[in-house]
C-alpha cells in the first residue's frame, strides 16, 4: 500500500514538472511554442502601455506633457510616483479576470515577466526597494484563497531581483469592491482601511497591485505608510484602467 502511495506521489510530481516545462515552451495566449517567455513576442505587441501617462499619478492623457496632470497639481497624491505597465483593455482585462476570478494563478508569473521592462524603466533608479502587495482583508483572502497582488509582487520581485514583503501593512477594513463607484465614493470606501507596521524599514517601498483605476486605494495605502514613517512610497500596477 505504502509503495503505491509513494509511486503515485512520484508520478504526480513527475507530471507536474512535465506540465510546468510544457507551459514554459508554449505562449499562454496563443499556445504557440518555441519561445522562452510565458507570453510570446507576437502576443506581447497586443499588450499596450498607457498613453502619455502623468509623471506623478500615471493617468493616461491626450498628449504628452512634462508637467503632472491637473489633479496632481491641485492635490498631489501621497505616493511619490505611480506607473502601470499596460492599458486595461483586451486581452489584458481578460487575463487579469482569469487570474482573479478564474483561479488561473499561473498568470501571475507571466504578467510579472511581461511587466518587468516597464517596472525597470520606471524604477531602476530606486535603490534597494521593497515590493509590497496591496493587502487584502483576511475574510476576502480566505474566500478567494489567495491575494493576486501578493502573487504578482512576489514574482516581480524575483524577476527584478528586489526584496518582497507582505508583513509591512495589512487591511483592517473589509471594504466592498471599488468597481462601479465614482471617484469620491472610492476614496471614502478605502479611507482608514489599512494599518502599517510600527517598524517600517527606511528603504523605498513600491506598492504592487494588479489594476489601478483612480488610484484611491494605493493613495490611501501610501498615506498610511508615510504616516507610519515611510520616506518614499511608489506604486506599480500591471494595468491601468480608465475611469470612464
Ligand atoms: Zn503568443
Ligand atoms: Zn497626475
Automatic annotation (TrEMBL):
Q: Does the keyword Transferase apply?
A: yes
The record's GO molecular-function terms, alphabetically, read: glycosyltransferase activity
Q: Which UniProt keywords apply?
A: Glycosyltransferase, Transferase
Question: What residues form the membrane-spanning segments?
Answer: none
Q: Where is this region: Disordered?
A: 175-194
**Superkingdom in the source lineage:** Bacteria
User: What family does this chain come from, according to its entry?
Assistant: Belongs to the ComF/GntX family.
**Name listed for the protein in its UniProt record:** Predicted amidophosphoribosyltransferase
